[in-house]
Amino acid sequence: MKKLLQVDFDFSGPFGEEMSNALLGLAESINNEAGVIWKIWTESEKDQIAGGVYLFEDEESAKAYLAMHSARLTEMGVKGVRGKIFDINMPLSTINKSPVS
Fold this sequence. Notes:
By secondary structure, this protein is α+β, with helices and mostly antiparallel strands. It is 37% helix and 30% strand. A hairpin with a 4-residue loop joins strand 2 and strand 3.
């Protein structure tokens, strides 16, 4: 069953286009991670947080990615990584035109 992973963490930048340029390699590498279907990158310069919402093939892949990504962010000096894995309510999501099938 597909799983949604939501990750966020305190982040002081860069944001916007500067973030896009700085993290291009990381973004490309995420496509090669086991079980990843897609990721939406999130950021709030105002609140000084960043993260993402991911769709995974299964819970095992989501858990493995969360553990690896949390360790990677910690190595990069990021503190306060928060991650949650969610089930998807497909009947309601379909009503609201979810891209998840």
